[in-house]
Protein backbone atom coordinates (compact mmCIF):
# COMPACT_ATOMS: atom_id res chain seq x y z
CA UNK A 1 0.00 0.00 0.00
CA UNK A 2 1.39 3.40 -0.93
CA UNK A 3 1.15 6.46 1.27
CA UNK A 4 -0.84 8.33 -1.38
CA UNK A 5 -3.68 5.83 -1.06
CA UNK A 6 -4.17 6.51 2.64
CA UNK A 7 -6.45 9.57 2.40
CA UNK A 8 -9.20 8.08 4.58
CA UNK A 9 -7.20 5.56 6.56
CA UNK A 10 -7.86 6.15 10.25
CA UNK A 11 -5.46 7.69 12.73
CA UNK A 12 -5.11 4.52 14.81
CA UNK A 13 -4.68 2.46 11.65
CA UNK A 14 -1.91 4.76 10.41
CA UNK A 15 -0.12 4.46 13.75
CA UNK A 16 -0.36 0.67 13.53
CA UNK A 17 0.88 0.62 9.93
CA UNK A 18 3.89 2.78 10.76
CA UNK A 19 4.72 0.63 13.78
CA UNK A 20 4.45 -2.54 11.66
CA UNK A 21 6.69 -1.15 8.94
CA UNK A 22 3.91 -1.21 6.31
CA UNK A 23 4.51 2.47 5.53
CA UNK A 24 7.17 4.91 6.65
CA UNK A 25 6.55 8.15 8.45
CA UNK A 26 8.37 9.92 5.62
CA UNK A 27 5.85 8.51 3.11
CA UNK A 28 2.83 9.35 5.26
CA UNK A 29 4.05 12.85 6.00
CA UNK A 30 4.99 13.65 2.40
CA UNK A 31 1.57 12.44 1.26
CA UNK A 32 -0.22 14.53 3.90
CA UNK A 33 1.76 17.63 2.95
CA UNK A 34 1.02 16.97 -0.71
CA UNK A 35 -2.71 16.74 -0.02
CA UNK A 36 -2.57 19.84 2.18
CA UNK A 37 -0.97 21.89 -0.59
CA UNK A 38 -3.26 20.44 -3.27
CA UNK A 39 -6.37 21.25 -1.23
CA UNK A 40 -5.40 24.81 -0.27
CA UNK A 41 -6.81 26.48 -3.38
CA UNK A 42 -10.24 24.97 -2.67
CA UNK A 43 -10.48 24.26 1.06
CA UNK A 44 -7.90 26.70 2.51
CA UNK A 45 -7.64 24.70 5.72
CA UNK A 46 -4.11 25.74 6.73
CA UNK A 47 -2.60 29.02 7.90
CA UNK A 48 0.95 27.60 8.04
CA UNK A 49 2.54 24.42 6.66
CA UNK A 50 5.85 23.01 7.92
CA UNK A 51 7.20 21.15 4.87
CA UNK A 52 10.89 21.03 5.74
CA UNK A 53 10.44 20.70 9.50
CA UNK A 54 7.76 17.99 9.26
CA UNK A 55 9.77 15.94 6.76
CA UNK A 56 12.83 16.17 9.00
CA UNK A 57 10.75 15.07 12.00
CA UNK A 58 9.32 12.19 9.96
CA UNK A 59 12.82 11.04 9.02
CA UNK A 60 13.77 11.14 12.69
CA UNK A 61 10.63 9.14 13.54
CA UNK A 62 11.66 6.47 11.05
CA UNK A 63 15.09 6.26 12.68
CA UNK A 64 13.45 5.90 16.08
CA UNK A 65 11.15 3.19 14.74
CA UNK A 66 14.11 1.30 13.34
CA UNK A 67 15.74 1.49 16.76
CA UNK A 68 12.68 -0.08 18.40
CA UNK A 69 10.86 3.01 19.72
CA UNK A 70 7.09 2.45 19.88
CA UNK A 71 5.62 5.74 21.07
CA UNK A 72 1.83 5.66 20.45
CA UNK A 73 1.78 8.26 17.64
CA UNK A 74 5.33 7.83 16.40
CA UNK A 75 5.58 9.10 12.84
CA UNK A 76 1.89 9.88 12.30
CA UNK A 77 1.07 13.29 10.75
CA UNK A 78 -1.43 15.60 12.45
CA UNK A 79 -2.29 19.31 12.50
CA UNK A 80 -3.08 21.78 15.26
CA UNK A 81 -5.24 24.90 15.35
CA UNK A 82 -3.56 28.28 15.10
CA UNK A 83 -4.34 29.30 18.67
CA UNK A 84 -1.76 26.91 20.14
CA UNK A 85 1.95 27.75 20.38
CA UNK A 86 4.28 25.70 18.19
CA UNK A 87 7.98 26.52 18.26
CA UNK A 88 9.11 28.37 15.16
CA UNK A 89 5.66 29.51 13.96
CA UNK A 90 3.50 32.51 14.88
CA UNK A 91 0.30 32.07 16.87
CA UNK A 92 -1.89 34.42 14.87
CA UNK A 93 -5.28 33.09 16.05
CA UNK A 94 -6.91 34.18 12.81
CA UNK A 95 -5.63 37.77 12.95
CA UNK A 96 -3.73 39.90 10.46
CA UNK A 97 -0.26 41.17 11.28
CA UNK A 98 3.30 40.01 11.77
CA UNK A 99 3.25 37.96 14.96
CA UNK A 100 6.49 36.77 16.57
CA UNK A 101 7.31 33.11 16.24
CA UNK A 102 6.73 31.02 19.34
CA UNK A 103 9.92 30.16 21.18
CA UNK A 104 8.43 27.21 23.07
CA UNK A 105 5.74 24.61 22.48
CA UNK A 106 2.43 24.81 24.31
CA UNK A 107 2.11 22.03 26.93
CA UNK A 108 -0.30 20.03 24.74
CA UNK A 109 2.07 20.28 21.77
CA UNK A 110 4.92 19.04 23.95
CA UNK A 111 2.81 16.03 24.88
CA UNK A 112 1.96 15.35 21.23
CA UNK A 113 5.64 15.47 20.34
CA UNK A 114 6.42 13.14 23.24
CA UNK A 115 3.87 10.71 21.78
CA UNK A 116 5.75 10.91 18.48
CA UNK A 117 3.29 12.86 16.32
CA UNK A 118 4.57 14.80 13.29
CA UNK A 119 2.82 18.18 13.13
CA UNK A 120 2.50 19.24 9.49
CA UNK A 121 1.02 22.67 10.15
CA UNK A 122 -1.43 25.01 11.85
CA UNK A 123 -5.03 25.32 10.73
CA UNK A 124 -7.21 28.33 10.07
CA UNK A 125 -9.55 29.89 12.60
CA UNK A 126 -11.60 33.11 12.56
CA UNK A 127 -10.31 36.09 14.49
CA UNK A 128 -9.80 35.02 18.09
CA UNK A 129 -12.15 32.07 17.58
CA UNK A 130 -15.23 34.24 17.92
CA UNK A 131 -17.51 32.87 15.21
CA UNK A 132 -18.94 29.57 13.90
CA UNK A 133 -17.50 30.23 10.44
CA UNK A 134 -13.85 30.25 9.39
CA UNK A 135 -13.45 33.32 7.22
CA UNK A 136 -11.41 36.49 7.63
CA UNK A 137 -9.16 39.10 6.01
CA UNK A 138 -6.00 37.41 7.29
CA UNK A 139 -6.43 34.19 5.29
CA UNK A 140 -9.62 34.29 3.21
CA UNK A 141 -12.34 31.63 3.33
CA UNK A 142 -12.04 28.07 4.62
CA UNK A 143 -14.58 25.82 2.93
CA UNK A 144 -16.49 22.65 3.73
CA UNK A 145 -15.11 19.60 1.88
CA UNK A 146 -18.63 18.17 1.61
CA UNK A 147 -19.80 21.27 -0.26
CA UNK A 148 -17.28 24.08 -0.86
CA UNK A 149 -20.09 26.60 -1.08
CA UNK A 150 -20.72 26.13 2.65
CA UNK A 151 -18.70 26.80 5.79
CA UNK A 152 -17.11 23.94 7.74
CA UNK A 153 -18.05 25.88 10.87
CA UNK A 154 -15.78 27.43 13.43
CA UNK A 155 -13.81 28.25 15.11
CA UNK A 156 -11.84 25.00 14.55
CA UNK A 157 -12.96 25.07 10.92
CA UNK A 158 -9.52 24.55 9.42
CA UNK A 159 -8.88 21.48 11.55
CA UNK A 160 -12.30 20.06 10.64
CA UNK A 161 -11.85 20.69 6.91
CA UNK A 162 -8.40 19.07 6.93
CA UNK A 163 -9.67 15.93 8.65
CA UNK A 164 -13.01 15.57 6.84
CA UNK A 165 -11.30 15.92 3.44
CA UNK A 166 -8.76 13.19 4.17
CA UNK A 167 -5.75 15.50 4.20
CA UNK A 168 -4.92 14.17 7.67
CA UNK A 169 -6.59 11.62 9.93
CA UNK A 170 -6.93 13.75 13.09
CA UNK A 171 -6.30 17.27 14.31
CA UNK A 172 -6.35 19.29 17.49
CA UNK A 173 -8.90 22.07 17.89
CA UNK A 174 -10.16 24.24 20.71
CA UNK A 175 -13.68 24.74 22.05
CA UNK A 176 -14.77 27.92 23.86
CA UNK A 177 -18.43 27.96 22.81
CA UNK A 178 -18.71 24.86 20.64
CA UNK A 179 -15.65 25.48 18.47
CA UNK A 180 -14.76 21.77 18.22
CA UNK A 181 -18.30 20.39 18.25
CA UNK A 182 -19.85 22.80 15.72
CA UNK A 183 -17.34 22.17 12.90
CA UNK A 184 -17.38 18.47 13.73
CA UNK A 185 -21.16 18.51 13.27
CA UNK A 186 -20.97 20.37 9.98
CA UNK A 187 -18.21 18.18 8.50
CA UNK A 188 -19.32 14.73 9.73
CA UNK A 189 -16.66 14.16 12.39
CA UNK A 190 -16.32 13.07 15.98
CA UNK A 191 -15.29 16.10 18.03
CA UNK A 192 -14.60 15.95 21.76
CA UNK A 193 -15.08 18.97 24.01
CA UNK A 194 -12.96 17.84 26.93
CA UNK A 195 -13.42 18.34 30.64
CA UNK A 196 -11.87 21.64 31.74
CA UNK A 197 -8.29 20.93 32.74
CA UNK A 198 -8.10 17.59 30.92
CA UNK A 199 -5.64 18.87 28.33
CA UNK A 200 -3.18 21.55 29.51
CA UNK A 201 -3.94 24.86 27.78
CA UNK A 202 -0.92 26.89 28.84
CA UNK A 203 -2.40 30.29 29.62
CA UNK A 204 -6.01 30.15 28.42
CA UNK A 205 -7.39 33.72 28.38
CA UNK A 206 -11.14 33.07 28.26
CA UNK A 207 -11.53 32.49 31.99
CA UNK A 208 -12.17 28.76 31.86
CA UNK A 209 -14.41 28.65 28.78
CA UNK A 210 -11.89 27.27 26.30
CA UNK A 211 -10.48 23.75 26.24
CA UNK A 212 -8.51 21.81 23.65
CA UNK A 213 -9.99 18.76 21.99
CA UNK A 214 -9.57 16.32 19.09
CA UNK A 215 -11.38 16.05 15.77
CA UNK A 216 -11.29 12.75 13.88
CA UNK A 217 -13.36 10.54 11.62
CA UNK A 218 -13.81 7.78 14.23
CA UNK A 219 -14.33 7.68 17.96
CA UNK A 220 -11.25 5.52 18.49
CA UNK A 221 -9.11 7.98 16.55
CA UNK A 222 -10.40 10.93 18.57
CA UNK A 223 -9.77 9.01 21.79
CA UNK A 224 -6.22 8.15 20.71
CA UNK A 225 -5.41 11.81 20.04
CA UNK A 226 -7.04 12.81 23.32
CA UNK A 227 -4.87 10.34 25.23
CA UNK A 228 -1.75 11.82 23.64
CA UNK A 229 -2.70 15.47 24.21
CA UNK A 230 -3.84 14.83 27.78
CA UNK A 231 -0.96 12.56 28.77
CA UNK A 232 -3.35 9.71 29.66
CA UNK A 233 -1.87 6.75 27.75
CA UNK A 234 -4.58 4.31 26.72
CA UNK A 235 -7.31 5.58 29.07
CA UNK A 236 -9.72 7.02 26.53
CA UNK A 237 -8.85 4.59 23.75
CA UNK A 238 -9.77 1.78 26.14
CA UNK A 239 -13.10 3.50 26.76
CA UNK A 240 -13.77 3.47 23.01
CA UNK A 241 -13.22 -0.31 23.01
CA UNK A 242 -15.67 -1.23 25.76
CA UNK A 243 -19.45 -1.33 25.99
CA UNK A 244 -21.06 1.55 27.89
CA UNK A 245 -23.70 -0.61 29.56
CA UNK A 246 -27.39 0.22 29.46
CA UNK A 247 -27.83 3.96 29.96
CA UNK A 248 -30.74 6.30 30.54
CA UNK A 249 -30.38 8.98 27.89
CA UNK A 250 -32.22 12.27 28.11
CA UNK A 251 -33.32 13.75 24.78
CA UNK A 252 -33.43 17.54 24.97
CA UNK A 253 -34.12 19.90 22.07
CA UNK A 254 -35.15 23.04 23.97
CA UNK A 255 -32.84 25.94 23.18
CA UNK A 256 -31.26 27.61 26.24
CA UNK A 257 -32.37 31.21 26.78
CA UNK A 258 -30.42 33.48 24.43
CA UNK A 259 -32.48 36.72 24.26
CA UNK A 260 -32.43 36.36 20.46
CA UNK A 261 -34.76 34.70 17.98
CA UNK A 262 -33.84 31.05 17.61
CA UNK A 263 -35.54 28.02 16.07
CA UNK A 264 -34.54 24.40 15.63
CA UNK A 265 -34.56 23.49 11.95
CA UNK A 266 -36.94 20.52 11.39
CA UNK A 267 -34.22 18.72 9.40
CA UNK A 268 -31.87 18.84 12.41
CA UNK A 269 -34.67 17.89 14.80
CA UNK A 270 -35.50 14.83 12.71
CA UNK A 271 -31.84 13.79 12.51
CA UNK A 272 -31.35 13.98 16.28
CA UNK A 273 -34.57 12.05 16.94
CA UNK A 274 -33.52 9.38 14.46
CA UNK A 275 -30.23 9.07 16.37
CA UNK A 276 -32.24 8.66 19.59
CA UNK A 277 -34.04 5.75 17.93
CA UNK A 278 -30.67 4.19 17.07
CA UNK A 279 -29.64 4.49 20.70
CA UNK A 280 -32.91 2.91 21.80
CA UNK A 281 -32.22 0.07 19.37
CA UNK A 282 -28.93 -0.50 21.20
CA UNK A 283 -30.85 -1.09 24.41
CA UNK A 284 -30.68 2.36 26.02
CA UNK A 285 -33.70 4.01 27.60
CA UNK A 286 -34.62 7.32 25.97
CA UNK A 287 -36.59 9.90 27.95
CA UNK A 288 -37.36 13.51 27.14
CA UNK A 289 -35.90 15.96 29.67
CA UNK A 290 -35.18 19.67 29.86
CA UNK A 291 -32.18 20.89 31.85
CA UNK A 292 -32.79 23.98 33.95
CA UNK A 293 -30.44 26.35 32.12
CA UNK A 294 -31.88 29.54 33.60
CA UNK A 295 -30.03 32.70 32.54
CA UNK A 296 -26.68 30.97 32.06
CA UNK A 297 -25.88 33.25 29.13
CA UNK A 298 -25.36 36.17 31.48
CA UNK A 299 -22.32 34.38 32.91
CA UNK A 300 -20.89 33.54 29.48
CA UNK A 301 -20.46 37.02 28.01
CA UNK A 302 -18.15 38.56 30.65
CA UNK A 303 -15.76 35.63 30.32
CA UNK A 304 -15.76 35.46 26.53
CA UNK A 305 -15.59 39.19 25.85
CA UNK A 306 -12.89 39.81 28.44
CA UNK A 307 -10.93 37.06 26.71
CA UNK A 308 -11.32 38.83 23.37
CA UNK A 309 -10.08 42.03 25.01
CA UNK A 310 -7.04 40.26 26.44
CA UNK A 311 -6.18 38.55 23.14
CA UNK A 312 -6.37 41.82 21.18
CA UNK A 313 -3.61 43.17 23.42
CA UNK A 314 -1.30 40.60 21.77
CA UNK A 315 -2.13 41.71 18.21
CA UNK A 316 0.69 43.74 16.60
CA UNK A 317 -1.66 46.06 14.68
CA UNK A 318 -5.18 46.22 16.05
CA UNK A 319 -6.31 48.56 13.25
CA UNK A 320 -6.39 45.55 10.93
CA UNK A 321 -8.89 43.68 13.07
CA UNK A 322 -12.50 43.14 12.05
CA UNK A 323 -14.66 45.99 13.44
CA UNK A 324 -16.71 43.33 15.23
CA UNK A 325 -13.58 42.16 17.04
CA UNK A 326 -12.74 45.69 18.14
CA UNK A 327 -16.32 46.18 19.35
CA UNK A 328 -16.22 42.94 21.34
CA UNK A 329 -12.90 43.96 22.89
CA UNK A 330 -14.49 47.24 23.96
CA UNK A 331 -17.34 45.39 25.63
CA UNK A 332 -14.75 43.17 27.29
CA UNK A 333 -13.08 46.19 28.85
CA UNK A 334 -16.40 47.14 30.43
CA UNK A 335 -17.09 43.61 31.73
CA UNK A 336 -13.61 42.81 33.02
CA UNK A 337 -14.28 43.88 36.62
CA UNK A 338 -17.29 43.08 38.84
CA UNK A 339 -19.26 41.39 36.05
CA UNK A 340 -16.45 38.92 35.40
CA UNK A 341 -15.99 38.16 39.10
CA UNK A 342 -19.74 37.57 39.47
CA UNK A 343 -19.79 35.28 36.44
CA UNK A 344 -17.13 33.05 37.94
CA UNK A 345 -18.77 33.13 41.38
CA UNK A 346 -22.08 31.87 39.93
CA UNK A 347 -20.56 28.75 38.40
CA UNK A 348 -21.00 26.40 41.42
CA UNK A 349 -24.70 27.24 41.53
CA UNK A 350 -25.03 26.48 37.83
CA UNK A 351 -23.33 23.13 38.39
CA UNK A 352 -25.93 22.25 41.00
CA UNK A 353 -28.98 23.49 39.08
CA UNK A 354 -28.14 22.24 35.59
CA UNK A 355 -26.33 19.18 36.92
CA UNK A 356 -29.48 18.03 38.72
CA UNK A 357 -30.61 16.56 35.40
CA UNK A 358 -27.97 13.87 35.86
CA UNK A 359 -29.92 12.62 38.83
CA UNK A 360 -32.51 11.51 36.26
CA UNK A 361 -30.35 10.53 33.26
CA UNK A 362 -26.82 9.35 32.59
CA UNK A 363 -26.24 11.27 29.35
CA UNK A 364 -27.94 14.11 27.51
CA UNK A 365 -28.59 13.95 23.77
CA UNK A 366 -29.12 17.35 22.13
CA UNK A 367 -28.61 18.92 18.72
CA UNK A 368 -25.13 20.33 18.25
CA UNK A 369 -26.41 23.14 16.04
CA UNK A 370 -29.91 24.42 15.22
CA UNK A 371 -29.28 24.54 11.46
CA UNK A 372 -27.30 22.82 8.72
CA UNK A 373 -24.02 24.50 7.65
CA UNK A 374 -24.64 28.05 6.35
CA UNK A 375 -23.37 29.14 2.97
CA UNK A 376 -19.98 30.82 2.74
CA UNK A 377 -20.40 34.58 3.10
CA UNK A 378 -23.62 34.37 5.14
CA UNK A 379 -22.11 36.61 7.83
CA UNK A 380 -20.41 39.08 5.47
CA UNK A 381 -21.28 42.73 6.00
CA UNK A 382 -23.21 42.18 9.20
CA UNK A 383 -22.80 44.45 12.20
CA UNK A 384 -21.63 43.00 15.48
CA UNK A 385 -25.17 42.72 16.81
CA UNK A 386 -26.45 41.18 13.57
CA UNK A 387 -23.58 38.68 13.58
CA UNK A 388 -24.35 37.72 17.17
CA UNK A 389 -28.01 37.17 16.32
CA UNK A 390 -27.20 35.11 13.23
CA UNK A 391 -24.61 32.89 14.90
CA UNK A 392 -26.73 32.30 18.00
CA UNK A 393 -29.66 31.35 15.76
CA UNK A 394 -27.44 28.77 14.06
CA UNK A 395 -25.53 27.56 17.14
CA UNK A 396 -27.45 28.00 20.42
CA UNK A 397 -26.81 24.56 21.93
CA UNK A 398 -23.09 24.15 22.57
CA UNK A 399 -21.89 27.03 24.74
CA UNK A 400 -23.55 26.17 28.12
CA UNK A 401 -21.16 23.23 28.52
CA UNK A 402 -18.23 25.64 28.23
CA UNK A 403 -19.59 27.65 31.14
CA UNK A 404 -19.95 24.46 33.15
CA UNK A 405 -16.56 23.08 32.06
CA UNK A 406 -18.02 19.62 31.45
CA UNK A 407 -17.38 17.23 28.54
CA UNK A 408 -19.37 16.69 25.37
CA UNK A 409 -18.91 14.70 22.17
CA UNK A 410 -20.32 15.57 18.77
CA UNK A 411 -21.35 12.54 16.76
CA UNK A 412 -22.51 12.58 13.13
CA UNK A 413 -26.31 12.46 12.90
CA UNK A 414 -26.81 12.10 9.16
CA UNK A 415 -27.06 14.54 6.29
CA UNK A 416 -29.44 16.92 4.60
CA UNK A 417 -30.99 16.04 1.25
CA UNK A 418 -28.15 18.03 -0.32
CA UNK A 419 -25.49 15.96 1.46
CA UNK A 420 -24.53 18.47 4.15
CA UNK A 421 -23.54 16.84 7.47
CA UNK A 422 -25.52 17.25 10.69
CA UNK A 423 -24.49 16.49 14.25
CA UNK A 424 -25.76 15.72 17.73
CA UNK A 425 -24.14 16.16 21.13
CA UNK A 426 -23.65 13.54 23.81
CA UNK A 427 -23.27 15.59 27.00
CA UNK A 428 -22.25 14.43 30.44
CA UNK A 429 -21.55 15.65 33.96
CA UNK A 430 -18.09 16.44 35.28
CA UNK A 431 -15.32 14.05 34.14
CA UNK A 432 -17.68 11.87 32.08
CA UNK A 433 -15.50 11.59 28.95
CA UNK A 434 -15.05 7.83 29.24
CA UNK A 435 -18.82 7.22 29.38
CA UNK A 436 -19.45 9.53 26.42
CA UNK A 437 -16.66 8.00 24.35
CA UNK A 438 -17.89 4.45 25.03
CA UNK A 439 -21.40 5.45 23.97
CA UNK A 440 -20.18 7.23 20.84
CA UNK A 441 -18.12 4.20 19.82
CA UNK A 442 -21.10 1.89 20.29
CA UNK A 443 -23.28 4.21 18.22
CA UNK A 444 -20.64 4.34 15.49
CA UNK A 445 -20.91 0.57 15.03
CA UNK A 446 -24.52 0.89 13.86
CA UNK A 447 -24.38 4.35 12.27
CA UNK A 448 -21.18 3.53 10.31
CA UNK A 449 -20.30 7.18 9.73
CA UNK A 450 -16.61 6.53 8.93
CA UNK A 451 -17.76 4.95 5.66
CA UNK A 452 -19.11 8.30 4.43
CA UNK A 453 -16.54 10.53 2.71
CA UNK A 454 -16.85 13.77 0.76
CA UNK A 455 -15.81 13.81 -2.88
CA UNK A 456 -12.20 15.01 -3.01
CA UNK A 457 -12.85 17.45 -5.88
CA UNK A 458 -9.74 19.42 -4.97
From TrEMBL:
The Amidase domain, residue ranges: 27-436
Record bears the keyword Hydrolase: yes
PROSITE patterns from the UniProt entry: AMIDASES
Any GO MF annotation of the entry: amidase activity
Keywords noted in UniProt: Hydrolase
Uppermost EC category: hydrolase
EC number: 3.5.1.4
Signal peptide stretch: none
PANTHER family assigned to the protein according to its UniProt record, in alphabetical order: GLUTAMYL-TRNA(GLN) AMIDOTRANSFERASE SUBUNIT A, MITOCHONDRIAL, TRANSAMIDASE
Family: Belongs to the amidase family.
Protein name: Amidase
Origin species: Amycolatopsis plumensis
The organism's taxonomic lineage, starting at the top: Bacteria, Bacillati, Actinomycetota, Actinomycetes, Pseudonocardiales
Amino acid sequence: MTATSLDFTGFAAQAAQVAAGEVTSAELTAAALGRAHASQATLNAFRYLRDDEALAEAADADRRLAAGDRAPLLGVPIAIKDDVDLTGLPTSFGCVGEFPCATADAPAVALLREAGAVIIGKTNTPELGQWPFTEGPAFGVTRNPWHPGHTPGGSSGGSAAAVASGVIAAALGSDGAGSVRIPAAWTGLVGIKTQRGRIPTGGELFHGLTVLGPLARTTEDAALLLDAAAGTPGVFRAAAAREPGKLRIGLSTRIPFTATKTRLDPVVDAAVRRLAESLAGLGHEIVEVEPDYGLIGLTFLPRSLTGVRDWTLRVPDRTGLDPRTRSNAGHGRLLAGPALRLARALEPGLHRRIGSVFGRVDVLLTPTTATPPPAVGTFDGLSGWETDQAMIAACPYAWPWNVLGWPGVNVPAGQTADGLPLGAQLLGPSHAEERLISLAAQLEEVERWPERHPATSW
